[in-house]
Amino acid sequence: MSWNSDYEDNWRPYVPVAERRRLAAKKIAKLKRAGRKISPVEISGRKITTTFWGNAWSQNLESYSDYANRLPRGRTYVRNGSLVDLQIEVGRVRALVSGSELYEVDIEIKHLTKARWNKIKGQCAGQIASLVEMLQGSISKGVMEIVTRKGTGLFPGPREISFDCSCPDWAAMCKHVAATLYGVGARLDHRSELLFTLRGADPLEMVEAAIDQPMRASRSRRGRVLESGELSSVFGVDIADDDPDTKQIRKPKTVVSGPSRKASRKSTVGKKQAKRSGRKSASKGSVKKKSAKKAKSKRVSKKKAGRKKASMKGRS
Q1: What's the half-sphere exposure (Cβ side, CA atoms, 13 Å) at 3?
Q2: Residue 310 CB: number of other CB atoms within 10 A?
Q3: For the chain, is the Cβ count within 10 Å smaller at the N or the C terminus?
Q4: What is residue 237's predicted lDDT score, i.e. its pLDDT?
């Protein structure tokens, strides 16, 4: 192991970047044949990160004085394509960095504590429209401040990060580790969900918390929730008991005072029948009277005819 952090550059022969890439490509090809999946970090232009999540990752690292003097050494390595493989897993980052040799970097990052994660979700609740928009960085300024807040946001601090490199550099953070940390930011530009994977959190929970928050707020504003029986007694209506959160009030039935509808219907029918029977009996009576008058008129006419005949016989 060297006596200073510039051991590789001062005591080992300088290896041009082109030669490093050739040697790295040779070793990478061997690893691929062995079945290892390789995912290099490729930077186009001078900027290592270009999106909200990538920039926020890099800015978080650079904000700590522990890293301020060590990170710049890794920028050149990232830009010239020396980060030939980067794998982000739950709580871990593994990388292969091309230097004088191909060095292995292993970084461990602690998971978010449950209390911290719940606090982040609670503070962001109601401010996130969708998972897609959040992962694209299309979030409000308030949410940005919450997730990037130093020490309490999604991004790790120095005490949550531990690392190791197979290089002979004795420095706490060599340029290969620095390059790997910058490489994580570059990867988040394209796959921001990996930040949540790295911290052991589910991004969907932030959206679910945003949806659930208004429901909880409305419940808290309602105060004590009355049972269905209490509601029935208070309002005089029937309450559907299928779902306590979505109870529907049925329209009250029209109450008919006095006799029931059935009884009123019967009485109405009886009155109609009585009227009909009265009409029938009246018509029968009139028919009888008419027939009696006819019979009487017949009798009178017969008597008159008999008298007329008798008077005619007496005269003769």
Answers
A1: 1
A2: 10
A3: C
A4: 38
Residue 195 CA to residue 53 CA, distance in Å, equals: 8
Give residue 301's pLDDT: 76
CA nearest to 67, candidates 55, 80, 58? 58
Instruction: Provide the 3-class DSSP secondary structure of residue 219.
Output: helix
Nearest to 62 by CA among 54, 71, 53: 71
State the pLDDT at residue 247. Answer: 44
Residues contacting 126, CB < 8 A, separation 6+? 210, 213, 214
Sign of CA dihedral 63, 65, 68, 74: negative
- Alpha carbons within 13 A on the beta-carbon side of 103: 23
Reference 195, options 51, 62, 67; nearest CA is 51
Provide the 10 A C-beta neighbour count for residue 238: 15
> Which residue from 142, 122, 38 is spatially nearest to 81, judged by alpha carbons?
38
For tokens 């420095």, what's the residue?
171
Q: What is the pTM of this model?
A: 0.61
Residue 29: the pLDDT is 85
